[in-house]
Amino acid sequence: MTELLNTTALVDRFGRRVRYVRLSVTDRCDFRCVYCMSEKMTFLPRDQVLTLEEIGRIASVFTSLGVEKIRLTGGEPLVRRDLMELVDYIGTLGLKDFTMTTNGSQLPRFATELKAAGLHRLNISLDSLDPEKFRRITRNGDLHKVLAGIDAAQAAGFSEIKINAVVMRGRNDDEVLALVDMVRKRGIDISFIEEMPLGNISDHGRDETFCSSDEVKAMIEQNYPLTPLQHMTGGPSKYFSMADSRSRIGFISPHSHNFCGDCNRVRVTVEGQLLLCLGNEHSVDLKPILRAYPKDNGPLRQAIISAMELKPESHHFTTDGEVQVVRFMNMTGG
């Protein structure tokens, strides 16, 4: 994996500088969350999936172009065989922020290795603290494994852990305060996320389950007044503090508070599609370039620079159940 040393900032047509890349390492997952994928998914054949070395090359080139933050996503990243080789490599690239989004089920096995390899932070998806409700939302998940994963991450020395909770009306909106109390006890952060209309799901109508960040914030403030913070992690969360706790409360609001104006992010799917926007289909296929030039990162570098012209000004999600993007979230990368 040859790293290019000359840096050129990635700037789109609207003057936004891309500093943050989310790299999906797999479309597979040991859960089947109702808002992320269908119950019976068809996953990508192995030859359509980027190798770990190819993902590492992409990470290297983005870093040489001024990217300061990389997040590994999936599916569930930790089900990818030999993933630690990639984590070890990216950990050497000198990033300001290197993080992973995970469902937490594999952290008892991997948390210590991830910390030693240079991973800075963990985002752990957790939508319910009720074992039966958790199983319904994930279709097959074991809440106790996820809680053990959080324990393992804290024991491994991860000081920055954030819970991500997708709030769905009638499904888990009654647990908002319970989730806040949980992170307060652990001294970690949480972001509440409005459900995103990616992929045609069969479990529920998204128009029926939509719950806005403003509604969630009002629930929390019944017990804990929130004060806006300037804290930024490079992502779309808007953070608030509580006077009597170190835990921060974040809100990711693609519907009610569009965060496109200062978007600094792009995604690369595990099949090599460079997605310029979460809520649009603008993309560039990097896989043919990677495989046509296995020893030369120059064409890959130029393709990434040129792709910035395709980054749209904004997404246009709706809350009426209409799906603008047909790919599921596990195909997009969380």
- Overall helicity: 25-40%
Helix count equals: 11
- Distance N to C terminus: 25 Å
Q: How many β strands by DSSP?
A: 14
**Arithmetic mean of pLDDT:** 88
Main β-sheet, in a few words?
12 strands, mixed
> Structural class given helices, strands, pairing?
alpha/beta
Within the largest sheet, what's the order of strands? Answer: 9-10-11-8-7-6-5-4-3-12-13-14
Uncertain runs: 1-7, 323-327
Kindly provide the radius of gyration, computed on alpha-carbon positions and rounded to a whole number of angstroms: 19 Å
What is the oligomeric state here? single chain
Dominant shape? globular
One letter per element, helices H and strands E, the order comes to EEEHEHEHEHHEHEHHEEEEEEHHH
* Percentage of β-strand residues: 15-25%
Task: Give an overview in words.
The model is unreliable at 1-7 and 323-327 (pLDDT under 50). A hairpin with a 2-residue loop joins β10 (238-242) and β11 (245-252). With 334 residues, this protein is α/β, with parallel strands linked by helices. The protein contains eleven helices and 14 strands. Helix content is 29%, strand content 19%. It is globular, with a radius of gyration of 19 Å. A twelve-stranded mixed β-sheet has the order 9-10-11-8-7-6-5-4-3-12-13-14.
Blueprint (SSEs and pairs):
Blueprint: E1 10-11, E2 17-18, E3 20-24, H1 52-64, E4 69-73, H2 83-90, E5 97-102, H3 107-116, E6 121-125, H4 131-138, H5 143-155, E7 161-167, H6 176-186, E8 189-194, H7 206-209, H8 213-221, E9 227-228, E10 238-242, E11 245-252, E12 265-268, E13 273-275, E14 283-285, H9 287-292, H10 298-307, H11 329-332
Parallel strand pairs: 3-4, 3-12, 4-5, 5-6, 6-7, 7-8, 8-11
Antiparallel strand pairs: 1-2, 9-10, 10-11, 12-13, 13-14
